[in-house]
């Protein structure tokens, strides 16, 4: 995953355009807004850019993006991030936007990680919603006290006994990358089969990672922070493992979440926009899978077009001296 | 929406009275809803990612293009489950919030 950290972005920020969602639409929008001379912040609830592509199918080949006869999902995301990078957008990753408040001349957005962004306009590229990690059924009270859903900085777990829960690619990747750092790594999955690349499965079995399948987490305990985890198999076998960290990698669920509370007109759980991608709210536009209009089709290529259309209209809104028509990027 | 279909992925007869729910655990759109005796896929919420299909131990889930002849009716049944009745479920935007619906499409409950 392209780990563009939120580092440097303070809790208070002022930009011309805030883009909500760093999927393909939001990333292309960030490039385009930079090209139109705007300062840009991009917020995403996930710790990495790429939206559905990065979260759901980074290894699949995509055949219908213009200019790429075939492109691996993550490669497309990397290229989009590289293209946007030219204008130095500020990334707020791990920031779910919860509120959008109007102040007349601007909009103030608040994130669940405590950032406040004042923006001349907002482009909602929220896709099918916020990706939130699927919760472990037990032990949620230990969240951030030993229980975690992401490991952005592996070295934080150095020397610890780590239990990774899950059977997909990210569970296996984390188990493998922590193997050399952690004091011990145990991988717990509730089914016998892993749903991950065969090569990773082979690597895990060949490594020092202890694999427990089919086992489920029954209990997490510890005084304040995690110190122990109990896992149980369906036939009642129980194992108690010492653990200072439990990494729950159970995949993601997309949830429209806060977007529904922003007073935006919705149709079939999508935001209604006009021909300029404007919503019913002043200074708020929408593009990509989250937008709806008659004839809408949800595809990456269409999201690109919508992002460019929205940003050109936003340019004219923010500076009436600006034309909607951008001129040609090749002339720049 | 992708393609010209009622339901991208369809749950069929083999789920009835089994409801192992592996599919629910996999679905990133949280669009697989629990009726009484079987589960149903909400067509507007499904993003056609295909994750549910291989995890079903009953081999009950099919892409609508691969539906076996005898299961064709379930495409309509999955779609209608959300639209039928006096207080249709519609598109609630997440099965976790809704929980167990507790009734089935009339052709299934029978
Ligand atoms: C398996 C699969 C295969 C596909 N194959 C293709 C294909 O071959 N070709 C094609 O064109 N399309 C394909 N698609 C569809 C394509 O992935 C989507 O159309 C595309 O990802 C939409 O991009 P987006 O940027 O609009 O939204 P998304 O990619 O959904 O990104 C939205 C981002 O917004 C973030 N977000 C949402 N709400 C908030 C909030 N409140 N605060 C902060 N962040 C928020 C989310 O975390 C997410 O990262 C496929 C989809 C799937 C699932
Ligand atoms: S995994 Fe198969 S049997 Fe289990 S609930 Fe889903 S469709 Fe039904
Ligand atoms: S195809 Fe994907 S989104 Fe659709 S029901 Fe299956 S798991 Fe859910």
Automatic annotation (TrEMBL), chain A:
Residues involved in FAD binding: 25, 44, 52, 57, 97, 131, 289, 330
Gene3D superfamilies per record: FAD/NAD(P)-binding domain
Domain FAD/NAD(P)-binding, residue spans: 16-298
Sections of the chain in a coiled coil: none
Enzyme nomenclature, EC number: 1.18.1.2
This protein's UniProt keywords: FAD, Flavoprotein, NADP, Oxidoreductase
Superkingdom: Bacteria
Cofactor section: FAD
One MF annotation (Gene Ontology) recorded for this entry: NADP binding
Cofactor note: Binds 1 FAD per subunit.
Catalytic activity: [thioredoxin]-dithiol + NADP(+) = [thioredoxin]-disulfide + NADPH + H(+); 2 reduced [2Fe-2S]-[ferredoxin] + NADP(+) + H(+) = 2 oxidized [2Fe-2S]-[ferredoxin] + NADPH
Record has Oxidoreductase as a keyword: yes
Pfam families: Pyr_redox_2
Subunit-level organization: Homodimer.
Protein family membership: Belongs to the ferredoxin--NADP reductase type 2 family.
Protein name per the record: Ferredoxin--NADP reductase
Organism: Streptomyces qaidamensis
């Amino acid at each position: 995953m392209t780990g563009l950290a939120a580092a440097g972005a303070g809790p208070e920020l002022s930009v011309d355009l805030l883009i909500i969602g760093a999927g393909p639409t939001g990333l292309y929008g960030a490039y385009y807004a930079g090209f139109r001379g705007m300062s840009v912040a991009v917020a995403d609830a996930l710790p990495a850019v790429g939206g559905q592509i990065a979260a759901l199918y980074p290894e699949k080949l995509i055949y219908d993006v213009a200019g790429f006869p075939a492109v691996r999902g993550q490669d497309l995301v990397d290229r989009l991030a590289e293209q946007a990078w030219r204008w130095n957008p500020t990334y707020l990753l791990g920031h779910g936007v919860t509120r959008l408040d109007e102040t007349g001349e601007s909009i103030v957005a608040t994130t669940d990680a405590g950032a406040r962004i004042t923006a001349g306009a907002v482009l909602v590229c929220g896709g099918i919603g916020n990706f939130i990690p699927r919760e472990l059924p037990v032990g949620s009270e230990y969240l951030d006290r030993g229980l975690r859903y992401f490991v952005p900085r592996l070295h934080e777990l150095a020397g610890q006994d780590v239990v990774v829960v899950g059977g997909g690619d990210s569970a296996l990747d984390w188990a493998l990358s922590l193997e050399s750092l952690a004091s011990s790594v145990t991988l717990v999955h509730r089914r016998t089969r892993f749903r991950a690349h065969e090569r990773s499965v082979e690597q895990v079995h060949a490594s020092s990672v202890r694999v427990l399948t089919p086992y489920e987490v029954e209990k997490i305990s510890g005084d304040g922070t995690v110190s122990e985890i109990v896992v149980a198999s369906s036939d009642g076998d129980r194992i108690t493992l010492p653990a200072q960290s439990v990494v729950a990698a159970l995949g993601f669920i997309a949830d429209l979440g806060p977007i529904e509370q922003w007073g935006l007109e919705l149709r079939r759980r999508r935001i209604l926009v006009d021909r300029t991608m404007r919503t019913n709210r002043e200074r708020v536009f929408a593009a990509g899978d989250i937008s709806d209009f008659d004839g809408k089709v949800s595809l990456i290529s269409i999201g690109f077009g919508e992002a460019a259309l929205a940003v050109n209209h936003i340019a004219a809104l923010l500076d009436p001296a600006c034309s909607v028509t951008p001129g040609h990027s090749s002339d720049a | 929406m992708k393609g010209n279909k009622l339901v991208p992925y369809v749950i069929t007869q083999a789920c009835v009275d089994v409801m192992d729910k592996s599919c629910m655990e996999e679905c990133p759109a949280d669009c697989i809803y629990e009726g009484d005796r079987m589960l149903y896929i909400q067509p507007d919420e499904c993003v056609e990612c295909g994750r549910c299909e291989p995890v079903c131990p009953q081999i009950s889930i099919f892409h609508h293009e691969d539906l076996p002849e005898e299961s064709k009716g379930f495409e309509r049944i999955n779609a209608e489950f959300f639209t039928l009745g006096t207080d249709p479920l519609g598109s609630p935007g997440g099965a976790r919030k809704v929980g167990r619906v507790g009734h089935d499409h009339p052709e299934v409950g029978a």
